[in-house]
């Protein structure tokens, strides 16, 4: 195994040749070697971080300002700074102390791993996301040996449950890796023994103080590192953050908070949310999650671009005709209509997931793989984007459809959705990046629910070959003969490049073929769920895949005006049947820019 980037904990390349072929060889690593790799890279990175942090006084302290008096050593030695409105003096002093403690304490230089603990508290543990994603991801991390020795998981919600009830609830969703399955039941039992439940209100400091007491019992006087995952509706984020911060922060280690989307519904509400969060947390404590950033192929985008000579030189307006970012679901908003109606597909998918992918796709080479360097480049892309014009947006909403004797509901059939709702369940948009690299290249986004298929893809259509000697042999449809790179994010992950090739034989006829890196054929390891990667990053303090507040501001600045216009003008969506390909308007929009949408998943086996 050859290490390529020693500055990042999980970036290592297999020394095996990774080819565009359907080779069945695999580069699986055992859980213990994975853990060792992580330790090696993480410890060196953390040590580097510690030096940078002390030098620049940049990394913020992890003890909430309002409660530092009640906590251990670091807090006791530093008095609050009066008249320092954002407490910078205090933050800087605490930063030095705690980041050194944190860095020395976590790897190598610390006394012992036995002396630090990590607790993950899932706030909203009784909810859908917690059951579906968070607990299973935590178990997967445990199963892979990625969680620290002393870890505890707490579920927190208003529902009355015992520890046993929580364990029973969680156990129903746990699965072991298909490719391993070693000691599966034993590992599940061990994991469940580390899970506890505390019932409380989200706005009760007393209830969080009681949680704090229980956490302290588990921590047993060791360094306490606490991660809160806010898996609750957004209207109660601030209450929960306030109470967790004031009553249940770590006294001598770090306290971090993962915040689920939606981060507001426009520029103003997002800024207000950030402002409120920052009353209790520093930016470094806030981990805004966009789970698409944790998806394997999204994570691989930068590797594809920056570690392969053949792609980066082509990654410009000179060679790329258009880029398509496509998301489709073959089911409606069933069960989530209440949430969805207040947001719509543009806020639900485009402003975050697709825009994040676009930023990673289009950014310049970052100075390094460090979180801030990558996020700086993403912000630059977002800030270079041209305001979106209303005429460059098409919206749709699904209507009822009967097929094969089955009637599928309309969006407005959901009881939690008003009958006259104009909320889009489908949208397509043309976006442009006004910088030297991308000037004039259309970035087309399309996202929809209740469509005929399910998937997410990035499609890169290249320009025509100038003066192509083989035009005569290609036929009349030159567009179809241009190269296309497809990054299939899900399902059935793949990266393939469509090329023109001579059909074997005595004649000279060309056809289109695929150089195909099909993950299922190439790698035998199961692809981790996005939430596993992101939870582990949050535990390790790696912020690269989380959204910084200026990124969020830039994303909202781009979409807020057009969202307002759509709503103020009460633009009527184009209705499309449940299970169809969506509104035809999306095709007219693409045609305006001489683009033909790639057909999601259609050429899978071509
Ligand atoms: N579910 C999903 O697939 C996704 C969810 N998200 C986001 O994750 C977060 C959690 O989502 P999800 O699990 O679906 O949410 P839920 O609606 O299931 O809520 C989670 C828990 O919060 C408590 N709760 C719900 N409504 C209220 C309320 N009005 N007041 C106080 N407490 C309430 C309930 O716990 P109790 O009553 O026990 O206190 C509930 O079990 C949300 O911010 C959502 O937008 C993001 C992406 C996907
Ligand atoms: O954030 C969201 O994502 C899901 C789709 O996520 P995926 O990982 O299953 O592709 C989407 O269904 C939901 O509406 C949205 O809030």
From TrEMBL:
Reaction catalyzed: D-glucose 6-phosphate + NADP(+) = 6-phospho-D-glucono-1,5-lactone + NADPH + H(+)
PROSITE patterns noted in UniProt: G6P_DEHYDROGENASE
GO aspect biological process, one term: pentose-phosphate shunt, oxidative branch
UniProt keyword Oxidoreductase, yes or no: yes
Broad enzyme group: oxidoreductase
GO terms assigned for molecular function: glucose-6-phosphate dehydrogenase activity; NADP binding
Keyword tags: Carbohydrate metabolism, Glucose metabolism, NADP, Oxidoreductase
NCBIfam families: zwf
Task of the protein: Catalyzes the rate-limiting step of the oxidative pentose-phosphate pathway, which represents a route for the dissimilation of carbohydrates besides glycolysis.
Record protein name field: Glucose-6-phosphate 1-dehydrogenase
């Amino acid at each position: 195994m050859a290490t390529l980037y020693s500055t990042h904990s999980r970036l290592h390349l297999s020394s095996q040749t990774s080819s565009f072929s359907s080779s069945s060889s695999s580069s699986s690593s055992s859980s213990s070697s994975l853990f060792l790799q992580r330790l090696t890279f993480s410890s060196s990175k953390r040590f580097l971080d510690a030096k940078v942090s002390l030098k620049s006084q940049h990394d913020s302290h992890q003890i909430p300002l309002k409660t530092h008096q009640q906590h251990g050593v670091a807090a006791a030695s530093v008095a609050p700074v009066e008249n320092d409105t954002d407490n910078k003096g205090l933050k800087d002093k605490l930063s030095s102390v705690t980041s050194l403690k944190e860095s020395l304490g976590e790897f190598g230089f610390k006394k012992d791993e036995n002396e630090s603990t990590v607790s993950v508290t899932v706030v909203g543990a009784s909810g859908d996301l917690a059951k579906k994603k968070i607990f299973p991801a935590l178990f997967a991390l445990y199963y892979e040996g990625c969680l620290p020795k002393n870890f505890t998981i707490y579920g927190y919600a208003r529902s009355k449950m015992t520890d046993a009830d929580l364990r029973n609830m969680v156990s129903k969703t746990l699965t072991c890796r298909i490719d391993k399955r070693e000691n599966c039941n034993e590992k599940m039992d061990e994991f469940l023994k580390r899970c506890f439940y505390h019932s409380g209100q989200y706005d009760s400091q007393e209830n969080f103080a009681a949680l704090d007491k229980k956490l302290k019992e588990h921590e047993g006087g060791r360094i306490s590192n606490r991660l809160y995952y806010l898996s609750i509706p957004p209207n109660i984020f601030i209450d929960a953050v306030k109470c967790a911060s004031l009553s249940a922060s770590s006294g001598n280690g770090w306290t971090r908070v993962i915040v689920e989307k939606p981060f507001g519904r426009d520029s103003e509400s997002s800024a207000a949310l950030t402002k409120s969060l920052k009353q209790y947390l520093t930016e470094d404590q806030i981990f805004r999650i966009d789970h698409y950033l944790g998806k394997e192929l999204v994570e691989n985008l930068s590797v594809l671009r920056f570690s392969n000579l053949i792609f980066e030189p082509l990654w410009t307006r000179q060679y790329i005709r258009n880029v398509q970012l496509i998301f489709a679901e073959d089911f409606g908003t069933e069960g989530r209509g209440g949430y969805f109606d207040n947001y719509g597909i543009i806020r639900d998918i485009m402003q975050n997931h697709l825009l994040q992918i676009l930023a990673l796709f289009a950014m310049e080479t970052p100075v390094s793989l460090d979180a801030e360097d990558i996020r700086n480049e993403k912000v630059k892309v977002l800030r270079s984007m041209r305001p979106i014009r209303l005429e460059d947006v098409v919206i749709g909403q699904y209507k009822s459809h009967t097929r094969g004797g089955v009637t599928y509901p309309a969006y407005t059939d959901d009881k939690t959705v008003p009958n006259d709702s104009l909320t889009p369940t489908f949208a397509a948009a043309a976006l442009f990046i006004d910088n030297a690299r991308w000037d004039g290249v259309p970035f087309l986004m399309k996202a929809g629910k209740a469509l005929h298929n399910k998937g997410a893809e990035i499609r890169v259509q290249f320009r025509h070959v100038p003066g192509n000697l083989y035009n005569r042999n290609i036929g009349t449809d030159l567009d179809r003969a241009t190269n296309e790179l497809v990054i299939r994010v899900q399902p059935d992950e793949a990266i393939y490049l469509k090329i023109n090739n001579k059909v074997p034989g005595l004649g000279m006829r060309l056809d289109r073929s695929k150089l195909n890196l099909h993950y299922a054929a190439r790698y035998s390891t199961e692809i981790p769920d996005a939430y596993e990667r992101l939870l582990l990053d949050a535990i390790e303090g790696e912020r690269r895949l989380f959204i910084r507040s200026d990124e969020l501001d830039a994303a909202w600045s781009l979409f807020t005006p057009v969202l307002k216009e759509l709503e103020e003008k009460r633009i009527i969506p184009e209705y499309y049947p449940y299970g169809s390909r969506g509104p035809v308007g999306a095709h007219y929009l693409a045609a305006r820019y001489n683009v033909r949408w790639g057909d999601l998943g259609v050429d899978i086996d071509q």
